[in-house]
Amino acid sequence: MALTPEDVSRIAHLARLELHDAEHAAMLTQLNGFFSIVEQMSAVDTSGVEPLYTPLSAVSEVALRLRDDVATETDQRELNQRSAPAVEDGLFLVPKVIE
Fold first, then answer.
1. Which 3-state string (H, E, C) describes 32-58?
2. Is residue 39 within 8 Å of 1, Cβ to Cβ?
3. For residues 33 and 74, what is the distance between their CA atoms, to the nearest angstrom?
4. pLDDT, tens digit, for every residue of 1-46?
5. pTM
6. If I label 39, which of 1, 23, 79, 86 is the partner at 20 to 30 A Cα–Cα?
């Protein structure tokens, strides 16, 4: 799947990036290179391969250091949201950016 210059223009618009002609061409090359790598990786059969939680576990046994999942900080939501321009029901409100 190769991107077109129009795709790059649309992505730049959504990301609110202003790209000059040279940057536009470089971005097209970089994005197509990235998607080429993703296609190569997707073509590899990984069935039966156990996922690694760390690359080191591929070469030696690694013991996980686990701790109890306990909240250690107090709730400071209201304090953290004081500077927000818009909040509703404890949630940040953000303007719509995708058309």
1. HHHHHHHHHHHCCCCCCCCCCCCHHHH
2. yes
3. 46
4. 789 999 999 999 999 999 999 999 999 999 999 999 999 999 999 9
5. 0.50
6. 23
How many other CB atoms sit within 10 Å of the CB of residue 28? 19
CB 80 within 8 A of CB 86: no
pLDDT value, residue 96: 87
Residues counted in the chain: 99
With beta carbons less than 8 A apart as the criterion, state whether 31 and 8 touch.
yes
Distance CA 99, CA 73 (A): 38
- Output the CA torsion sign for 38, 39, 44, 49: positive
- Please name the amino acid found at residue 12: A
Instruction: List, for residues 45-76, the tens digit of each pLDDT value.
Output: 999 888 877 888 778 888 878 888 898 999 99
Give the number of other CB atoms < 10 A from CB of residue 55. 8
Q: How far apart are CA 58 and CA 56, in angstroms?
A: 5
